[in-house]
Amino acid sequence: MKILRHLLFPVVPIYFMVTWLRNKLYDLGIKKAMNYDFPVICVGNLSAGGTGKTPMIEYLVKLLKADYKVATLSRGYKRKTTGFQLANASATVETIGDEPFQFYNKFKDAIEVAVDSDRQNGIAELQALSKKLDVILLDDAFQHRKVQAGFNIMLTTYSNPFFSDIVLPTGDLREPRSGAKRAHCIVVTKCPLDINNSEKEAIIKRINPLKSQSVFFSSIVYSETLFSEAESITFEAIKPFTLVTGIANATPLVQFLKGKQLNFEHLNYKDHHEFSEQDIVELSKKSLIVTTEKDFMRMKDYTVLRDKLYYLPIEVKIDDKPKFEALIKAFTKR
C-alpha cells in the first residue's frame, strides 16, 4: 500500500490544485456557503481519519448538554440507509453508522443524534424538529464547505501533524495545509501525557497560527475499568485476552495495554471494519475479547460474543481546559 501511494505521487499536484481551487471559490464567495444564526460547531481535520474526532465530540456534548439542547450531525459513514436519519430506539450501526450509534447509546436521554451526508439538509431537518435546538455539533465536516460553521475546531495528531504532511494520495491530507486558516482553534491530539512546554512551543511555531487562532494540546486518557453489556472488570482481574481493533490508528491503545504488562494478542482490522459472519465465528472461539467503544457498537449484538466482549472507554484531557471551555461557552452564548 505504501509503495502504491508513492507511485501515485504524480497525482499529488493535481489533487492539490483541485482542492485548493475549490476552497478558493468558497473563500471568494463564488461558491456559496450557508450561514446560521445559532451556534454551529464543527469538529474536523485536514487529515484522512484517526485524529480523535469522536472523543472530542463527546467532550463537547458533556460540556454543553446541561445548559443547552444539543444535537450531533454526522455523515453516518458506512451506514446502510440514505438521507436524513434521526436516531431513536430502533437505531443500529447499520441505520446511522458506528460513531453516531455510540453517541446515541451514551447520550440518548440528553441530546439528539442525526446523520445526513448533506449537512445543509441535516441542519434544516434538525431545526424543523418540534424540540428546538440550541447548538449543533458537526462531526467531520471541516471540508463540507456548503455549511459555514460559526466555530471550527481542527484536530491534528501529535505523531502525524498536518504541517509535516502532504495531500492525498501519497500523503494523508484531504486538502492543502492552508486550509488550517479556517480553524478558530487547533487541537494537537494524542499527545504524550508528559509533553513539556518547550515541545509545545516548537509545535506551535511549526503550526504558525493566525493571531486569532488558539492552539491546544490534548491527550487520550484510558479508563482503568473495562465494560461489557452486563458488568465491569478491572485490569487486575483480567485474564489473557484478544484485543480487536477496527480504528485508524490502534498504536496508542496497544502501547497503553503493553504498559500495563497485560497478556494479549492483537487482531487489527481496517478503520470502520464491517465484521463478516466468518469474522464472528473466529472471534467466538476466543475466550475473552477487549475492544474499543466504537468497535463494541458493531459487535455487541452478536449473541456468541456477548459474554466475552468488553470495551475500554477513553476520554480527552486538554492541557488548558479552562481556556478551551471558555472559548466554546463564549461562542455558544452569542
UniProtKB/TrEMBL annotation:
Annotated keywords: Transferase
EC assignment? 2.7.1.130
Q: Top EC class per UniProt?
A: transferase
Which named protein is this?
Tetraacyldisaccharide 4'-kinase
- List the source organism: Pseudotamlana agarivorans
